[in-house]
Amino acid sequence: MATIFSPSTILSSSAAATKASPKQPHPPLLAAVKPPPPLATLLTTTLAATTLLTASPSLADAYHVYYGTAASAANYGGYGGNSDNKTSAEYVYDVPDGWKERLVSKVEKGTNGTDSEFYNPKKRTEKEYLTYLAGFRQLAPKDVILNNLALSDVDLQDLIASADKVVSEEKKDDKGQLYYVYEIDGVGAHSLITVTCAKNKLYAHFVKAPSPEWSRDEETLRHLHESFKTVGSF
Questions:
Q1: Residue 145: enclosing H or E segment and its boundaries?
Q2: What does the pLDDT read at residue 190?
Q3: 124-128, 148-152, 183-187, 230-234: which has the minimum mean pLDDT?
Q4: Which residue from 52, 90, 125, 225 has the least number of CB within 10 angstroms?
Q5: 63-230: which CATH number, 3.30.70.120, 2.40.50.140, 3.40.1000.10, 1.10.150.120?
């Protein structure tokens, strides 16, 4: 005789089976996405990277003192002075570490009075040098001095002739010594000149640079310009 199951029994069994099988969670469709960094952070990072890639190296921030003796052509041995000539130095100025000294010939020293010169090895026309002339007890008027300096310096003549602006002034140091200071803003180049008289000599210190180097190294070049002074009595 066949056994007849009641519907309630079947439903009860199905419900029990359903309760026995726990519900499985659905796997995530996408992995969690990290939110992008704020716009300010992106801009800061980009600017920092651009600065590292495009910044031009300027001159060294370290200097050494050059001691010049202004020796006559007859007593000249090839270099105007060095750290061993402190006791006999007539003038001093700062030189950036890494710059090279150019050997001045006796002929050049005897004709235009160049006593010392240093230049940037990466750009030889970026340089500083000193000339001197004997037999000057005092300074003539500023315009006369500048014109006389240009007579023996063709590059200076051209710079003055093409200058957009020439500025000159007088100043005295703490000992009362008089200095003439010139700044020449020419086409393609810039020049700073300091002139003074001491020990019956006229000293002229020059700092020159092409316009691109001037724009990049102006602070350093002005430091060189301001570092020049004569030593001892005047």
A1: helix 142-151
A2: 97
A3: 230-234
A4: 52
A5: 3.40.1000.10
Between vectors from CA 11 to CA 9 and to CA 13, what angle results, nearest 5°? 70
Report the C-alpha gap between 221 and 225 in whole angstroms. 6
Q: How far apart are CA 115 and CA 28, in angstroms?
A: 83
CA separation for the pair 19, 11 (Å, rounded): 12
Question: Tokens for 158?
Answer: 């051209």
Q: What is the pTM of this model?
A: 0.72
Higher-confidence position of 132 and 232:
132
DSSP H helix total and E strand total for the chain: 6, 10
H/E element, 195: strand 189-198
Task: Report the distance separating Cα 66 and Cα 69, nearest Å.
Answer: 10
